[in-house]
Structure formats: C-alpha cells, structure tokens
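Incident log, support desk, overnight shift.

02:14 A customer reports that sequence design results differ from what the structure should imply. Their input is reproduced verbatim below. On-call engineer (initials T.W.) acknowledged and began investigating.
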C-alpha cells in the first residue's frame, strides 16, 4: 500500500491535482483489539470520499469470513458497488503460463453484490450426524441485467466479444435464469457476438487459450474464481487489480488488489506491489485522471519488461526495490 500511495502522490504533484488520504487501520489487528474490522460508523466515514483504496486484509489469527463480512462486503453493498471489474493483461516481459498465448487482454465483469455471496441460509444440528448447512444464492433480474448491460457496453467500447459464464446444466434454477436475463439484454446489442460457456470449460479455456477471451460477465463466485485463475495464467495473482464500481457514482467506488494479505510472506518485504499500484491506476482513471493512470501502468510495465521483477514472477527484487524502480520511471 505505501508504494502505491507514493506513486499516486508523485503523479498528483506532477499533474497538478490534490490527493488527501484519510488513513484507517480497519484491519485484523483492529478486529483482535476492538472486536470489529471497522467502527459502526465506518460507512459514513467513507461516504464523502471520492474513492476507497483498500489494501489486502486478513490474518491467519482470525476466520477469513470475518475479514470479508466485517469490511469488504458491507462496503461493496452499502456503496452499491455492483460491478467488480477485473482486468487481466499479459504485461510486456511476461510469458503466459501453460499456453503459447502471446497476448492476453481480458476484462472480467463480476456481479458484486448478490449471487452466491449471500448471508441467507443457516446451519442446524451442529456436531450431530444429521448436521446440515443451507446456503441460498440470490439472483435478481435487476442485478443480473445491470451486470450484463455493463459488460455489453464494455464489449461495445472494446469492439469485442462477450462470454457469459454459466453452469445452467448443473445449477438448475439460478443459472438458467442468469442465461435468460443475459440473452434478454443481448437483444439490445445485436452487433456483439455472445457466447454462453460453462464455467468449468471456461476455466480450462482460460488456461489453454486465454487469447481467445475478451469480455466475460460472471456471477459473484464464478467471477472471483475465474479472475484469480486468469491472473495466475498471466504471471501471478500479485499483479491483478480490481475495481468495485458504483457506476452511477452516487457512492464512492473501491479499488483493491485481487489477492489476499499473503500472511506467509508478511513482513518479509517481498510482496509484489503491482496489484495495488494497478488498482491505484484504476482509481485514478475512475476519477478522471486517465493520463496519470496510464503513466502509472506504463511505469510498472517498463520495469517488468526490463526484467526487474519480484519473486512471484521469478525475479529477485523486494517490494521496496521494485517500487523504487517504478518511482524512478515515473520521475523520468
Ligand atoms: N483475506 C483474504 C482475501 O481477502 N482474499 C481476497 C478475497 O477473498 N477477496 C474476496 C472477494 O473478492 O470477494
């Protein structure tokens, strides 16, 4: 997080705009100290901000559902960030894993506030042989429609194609409904070629032929899993960014790396800061600073293209050394 903020501060100074950070320690340590990831008025504290820049959270000391449901998911829902946009691009200097693809440029549009991420359900008869758990998934016409429409509009802007991730052969209520709503929206976009692909086949295709993918619209869970997989195919989950968008801009949007807090390397100074930096670039772009955003993505891409990478990409640089190389590029 600190190097990504340094990059943004540097760009702000050069481009003549102001950034005021309001830092919050809403993390696992806070949970252990105060019993909550964020204070009860946390959402109100953020509501008048232009954007939320989130560093990876989570600690082996606390259950990870506490991390998500105590911080990330309430923010996504309260600020109606119903789109989670997750780009995967093969950066200059990197090779695709498991395939010969020499170009990868995919946008996963993940439905971000409903679907399989639902608190509806329950568990009974804990610890008994007849113990059971029920988890309901929620799909609304409005929710699927707006995710699909966002994806179609993106496909129009990219002059591309759209794949809808489904599993309507096995999940026989919600997924046929998903397909139906996507098909209804598709009628508004007769020029866009749409393919409905089963999520398992799509995952395999993402590994073997990632260059055959463009815009993908997916439910909350499918989009999460698929985008993690695609980022690994393009090099490392350490580089993947994520924008949680309220497209109407009634509320702040949230920008974060796709990855978690990687507790196995915490404090070693070896984490790849690109996912956080790229998320920062998406935030700048969202806030109308597209030129600064491009400078930032160009800067880390040039460092990687020159063969300077962190451990996850086969290199030897630590977080600080890599970040200093990016800052040096930005200062040129
Ligand atoms: N603490 C691990 C973590 O946050 N991993 C990333 C993650 O699971 N994000 C949840 C999501 O994007 O739905």
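02:41 Re-run completed on a clean worker. Output:
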């Amino acid at each position: 997080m600190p190097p990504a903020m340094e990059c943004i501060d540097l760009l702000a100074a050069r481009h003549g705009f102001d950034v005021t950070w309001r830092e919050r320690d809403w993390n696992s340590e806070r949970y252990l100290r105060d019993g909550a990831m964020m204070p009860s008025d946390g959402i109100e504290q953020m509501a008048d901000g232009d954007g939320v820049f989130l560093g990876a959270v989570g600690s082996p000391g606390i259950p990870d559902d506490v991390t998500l449901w105590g911080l990330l998911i309430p923010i996504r829902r309260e600020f109606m960030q119903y789109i989670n946009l997750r780009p995967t691009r093969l950066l200059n200097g990197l090779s695709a894993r498991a395939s010969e693809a020499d170009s990868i440029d995919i946008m996963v549009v993940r439905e971000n506030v409903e679907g399989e991420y639902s608190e509806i359900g329950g568990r009974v008869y804990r610890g008994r042989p007849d113990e059971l758990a029920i988890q309901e998934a929620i799909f609304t016409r409005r929710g699927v429609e707006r995710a699909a429409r966002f994806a179609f509009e993106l496909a129009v802007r990219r002059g591309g194609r759209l794949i809808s991730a489904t599993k309507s052969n096995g999940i026989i209520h919600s997924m046929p409904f998903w397909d139906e709503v996507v098909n209804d929206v598709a009628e508004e976009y007769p020029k866009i070629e749409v393919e409905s692909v089963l999520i398992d086949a799509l995952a395999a295709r993402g590994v073997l032929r990632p260059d055959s993918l463009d815009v993908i619209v997916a439910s909350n869970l499918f989009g999460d899993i698929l985008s993690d997989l695609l980022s690994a195919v393009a090099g490392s989950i350490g580089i993947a960014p994520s924008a949680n968008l309220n497209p109407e801009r009634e509320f702040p949007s949230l920008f974060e790396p796709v990855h978690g807090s990687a507790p196995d390397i915490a404090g070693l100074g070896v984490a790849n800061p690109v996912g956080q930096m790229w998320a920062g670039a998406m935030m700048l772009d969202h806030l109308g600073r597209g030129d600064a955003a491009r400078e930032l993505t160009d800067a880390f891409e040039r460092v990687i293209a020159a063969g300077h990478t962190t451990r996850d990409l086969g290199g030897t640089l630590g977080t600080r050394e890599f970040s200093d190389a990016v800052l040096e590029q930005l200062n040129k």
